[in-house]
Design a protein that fits this description.
Largest sheet: none
Radius of gyration: 31 Å
Strand content: under 5%
Order of helices and strands: HHH
Length: 139
């Protein structure tokens, strides 16, 4: 049976382990922060779409109400207002639907960072379990 000779004391190996683990955690934290800032940008865009939808939906409702009143007053003059109000309503609803879909809670979880941390933990656990071919010492 062959033994692997190392000239490094255990304290040096342990110090390397601690420093590398610290560096890994720091890098993963930086990656998670970068991913979260990206997600916050997506939230801003979604909120902008919702505000845009509100800006179109409120006047659309007013136009449709005016068109309904005008339609009751004179049937021939209300068609233009109904068309304009209907188009504004459809565009507003589309913007609202897109904005609400982008605001779903699951979209803002840092999934990439979580997956990397899980992969790192699995590799570390595997390294701890693996004896790297070094046979046990029989005393």
């Amino acid at each position: 049976m062959a033994y692997i000779e190392t000239n490094r004391p255990i304290s040096a190996i342990f110090a390397d382990l601690v420093s590398q683990s610290t560096a890994l955690v720091r890098k993963e934290g930086q990656l998670a922060r970068a991913e979260m800032s990206e997600k916050i940008g997506e939230i801003g865009m979604a909120l902008g779409l919702v505000v845009g939808a509100a800006m179109l939906l409120i006047p659309a409702l007013v136009i449709l109400l005016l068109a309904a009143v005008a339609g009751l007053a004179a049937v021939g003059l209300a068609v233009g207002s109904l068309i304009v109000g209907g188009v504004a309503l459809v565009i507003g609803l589309a913007l609202l639907a897109i904005g609400v879909r982008r605001l779903k809670a699951g979209r803002f979880i840092p999934t990439k960072a979580i997956a990397r941390l899980q992969r790192d933990a699995a590799v570390a656990a595997q390294q701890v379990r693996n004896d790297h071919g070094i046979p046990e010492c029989a005393a």
